[in-house]
Structure to design on (371 residues):
């Protein structure tokens, strides 16, 4: 895995640092050429000057690098982080009024996204033994809507259809590795609907299906390469499983989950067509990273002689601390709801029962029960 990250790191640096400063350099050169009698310098010279002039004040770049360091294992987040430095610059270029700058503005975030996505592919694919047993996130596509994200400590299903119940607080579900009780590869002969704990329904088309039971949930996932997916889940669970006790049932962190439990048996009066939005609380993490940098700058000025900056240290430090605590609290509540869409008091479904009509285990599958 070390060599994979070693190869991916230059791509990440190019995506997060190189692309935005290359955009600034080319944009400056286009502006100089548009002036009467204007000339342009070489790209290397212009890039060096732009980097030197802007690196101290262009905060999205260091914030993106800090976020990458914090989310080094979450490969799906890398392309989105790449947009943090590039997208604001591109947005200003779209309103420049010239064709060249508009094309440049469109290309910058696309290139940054593509480089980060390629870096994520290098780290997570192909699925060798070191990848299966590592912490790096691996994405497994499903037939139809949804995707399975095999993360460091849990399985996460996202990009699901809208929950049937409009009041569902989460649009995705998760199972921790330490709570997985049964993994089985199989197939279905007829199409079926499978309702998940957040009340989203997957359409199970005929073909290979991955069955996972744990944490009070049962998943049927239409996966084409089901043997590879089952092996990935089993080896990752064996290598990365770490017990994490649930909070007491009277904790306020259960409020969102308990609301979801009440929706399980409620009648669906009108199907919901709106997906649940996730990730808005991550802006608090960005705010925390930004204000931490400001607090650090204020501390530097304070210790170099100007003690009036102590107020900046206290203000920005307080905002940074409050933001990161709020981010952690909201994230913990959401994570608990995703991992417990059904009450843990209900127990796990029976792995010996037939989940849907037309289900059959595959004889060549790495079926495994962890009871």
């Amino acid at each position: 895995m070390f060599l994979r990250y070693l190869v991916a790191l230059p791509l990440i640096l190019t995506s997060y640092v190189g692309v935005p400063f290359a955009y600034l350099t080319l944009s400056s050169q286009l502006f100089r050429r548009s002036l009467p009698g204007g000339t342009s310098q070489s790209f290397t010279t212009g890039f060096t000057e732009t980097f030197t002039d802007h690196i101290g004040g262009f905060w999205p770049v260091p914030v993106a690098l800090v976020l990458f360091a914090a989310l080094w294992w979450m490969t799906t987040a890398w392309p989105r982080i790449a947009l943090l430095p590039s997208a604001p610059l591109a947005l200003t270029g779209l309103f420049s009024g010239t064709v060249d700058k508009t094309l440049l503005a469109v290309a910058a975030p696309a290139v940054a996204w593509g480089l980060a996505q390629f870096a994520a592919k290098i780290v997570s694919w192909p699925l060798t033994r070191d990848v299966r047993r590592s912490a790096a996130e691996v994405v497994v596509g499903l037939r139809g809507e949804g995707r399975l994200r095999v993360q460091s400590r849990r399985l996460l299903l996202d990009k699901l259809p809208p929950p049937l119940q409009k009041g569902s607080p989460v649009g995705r579900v998760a199972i921790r590795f330490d709570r997985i009780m049964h993994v089985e590869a199989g197939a279905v002969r007829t199409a079926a609907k499978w309702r998940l704990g957040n009340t989203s329904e997957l359409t199970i088309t005929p073909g290979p299906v991955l069955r996972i039971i744990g944490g009070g949930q049962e998943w049927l996932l239409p996966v084409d390469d089901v043997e590879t997916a089952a092996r990935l889940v089993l080896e990752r669970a064996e290598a990365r499983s770490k017990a994490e006790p649930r909070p007491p049932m009277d904790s306020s962190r259960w409020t969102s989950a308990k609301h979801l439990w009440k929706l399980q048996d409620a009648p669906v009066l009108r199907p919901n067509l709106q997906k649940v939005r996730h990730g808005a609380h991550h802006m608090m993490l960005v705010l925390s990273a930004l204000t931490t940098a400001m607090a650090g700058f204020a501390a530097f000025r304070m210790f170099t002689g100007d003690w009036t900056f102590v107020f900046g240290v206290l203000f920005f430090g307080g905002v940074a601390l409050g933001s990161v605590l709020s981010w952690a609290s909201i994230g913990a509540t959401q994570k608990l709801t995703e991992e417990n869409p059904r009450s843990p008091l209900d127990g796990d479904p029976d792995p010996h029962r037939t989940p849907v009509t037309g289900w059959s285990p595959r004889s060549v599958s790495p079926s495994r029960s962890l009871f």
In short: The two ends are 31 Å apart (CA to CA). Residues 193 and 203 are 5 Å apart (CA to CA). The first strand starts at residue 138 and ends at 141. The longest helix spans residues 2-34.
